[in-house]
Write a structure and sequence with these properties.
Elements (H helix, E strand, L loop, with lengths): L5 H5 L7 H15 L8 H14 L2 H8 L17 H5 L17 H7 L3 H4 L4 H7 L7 E7 L1 H6 L1 E12 L5 E12 L8 E4 L15 E7 L5 E4 L2 E8 L1 H6 L1 E5 L6 E5 L8 E4 L13 E7 L7 H13 L9
């Protein structure tokens, strides 16, 4: 049979007040009443069924004990022991005698009043329906240095929980976690049993920490590779030079070959994110910076270069 999410049908939250539920019901009932031009008898019956449950305090509390893990329209398989608890209660006690107009899902729970009469046994139903708690995903912001070296982080996260009536709430949870060396953007760190509490005695879910890398003043990241823009003077690029290059794993002396052009890429193997054989590389992107001709001597120097170095970078146009 199909599970009916009565909250979704009325378009209200699980924490909605009685007044909110009544208001939502009246609005929808007025819209879908079969006597209206926009009427829809099937929809109207569904709305009426939802209000029959949520508009009754006792029925709502009992329905809420199913918890929020089911979704409207999904296949609902009663757990073991369900019929023993509710099947023998009879179907003649439903208030108003309207149970026959409602869904099989409603009848399986409330029947002829059996659900309410079985309230004392509902705990047995919950226990037989043990479910693992939901996994929770939380982003954790770390620096590139922490991604490479590893780190200890103190986190306070808001964890969702469900009270005895199925209503959602959040509570803070303080954790000290170890970020292993070698993580990348989007890496997930699983903390077993630190997720949402299980239902009916089921185990807790897991907490997944998803790594989010902070922007860095020097480096850009492309998956496991790190990119650094390296400024050079025109004479360094033309004549070649040696430069001390910063990397996330320490400084490296690099030879810049003569004739290097702006936009050229040089690679330092294994100096990116990750570790061991899976470590990325660091790429050096050359950017040639021309000093401004702010003095007469500088202008004379550039004029001499122009006359003695007849170079035309647009000769291919």
């Amino acid at each position: 049979m199909e599970y009916k999410d009565y909250y979704e049908i009325l378009g209200v939250d699980r924490s909605a007040s009685e007044a909110d539920i009544k208001k939502a019901y009246r609005k929808l009932a007025g819209k879908y009443h079969p006597d209206k031009p926009s009427g829809d008898e099937t929809k109207f019956k569904e709305i009426s069924e939802a209000y029959e449950v949520l508009g009754d305090k006792e029925k709502r509390q009992l329905f809420d004990q199913l918890g929020p893990n089911y979704h409207n329209g999904q296949n609902f398989q009663p757990p073991p022991g369900f019929d023993d608890i509710f099947g023998g209660q009879g179907h003649g006690g439903f208030g108003g005698g309207q149970a026959g107009d409602f869904s099989d899902f409603f009848s399986s729970l409330f029947g002829g009043g059996g659900f309410g009469q079985a309230q004392g046994g509902f705990g047995g139903f919950q226990q037989s329906q043990a479910q693992k708690g939901n996994d929770q995903i939380v982003k954790v912001l770390i620096s590139l240095e922490e991604a490479v070296q590893g780190a200890q982080k103190s986190l306070t996260i808001q964890m969702p929980s469900t009270n005895q009536f199925g209503q959602m709430a959040h509570h803070p949870k303080n954790l000290k976690v170890k970020i292993p060396a070698g993580v990348k953007q989007g890496s997930r760190i699983r903390l077993a049993g630190q997720g949402s509490a299980g239902l009916g005695g089921g185990p807790n879910g897991d907490l997944l920490l998803e790594v989010d890398l902070q922007n860095h003043p020097l480096y850009r990241v492309d998956d496991a590779d790190v990119i650094l823009n390296l400024p050079l003077t025109p004479w360094e690029a033309a004549l070649g030079t040696k430069v001390e290059i910063p990397t996330l794993k320490g400084k490296v002396n690099m030879a810049i070959p003569a004739g290097t052009q702006s936009g050229s890429k040089l690679r330092i193997k294994g100096r990116g994110l990750g570790k061991g054989d899976k470590a990325g590389d660091q790429y050096i992107v050359i950017q040639i910076h021309t000093p401004p001709a702010t003095s007469d001597d500088a202008k004379a120097f550039y004029e001499k270069m122009a006359s003695e170095l007849p170079f035309d970078p647009r000769s291919h146009f």
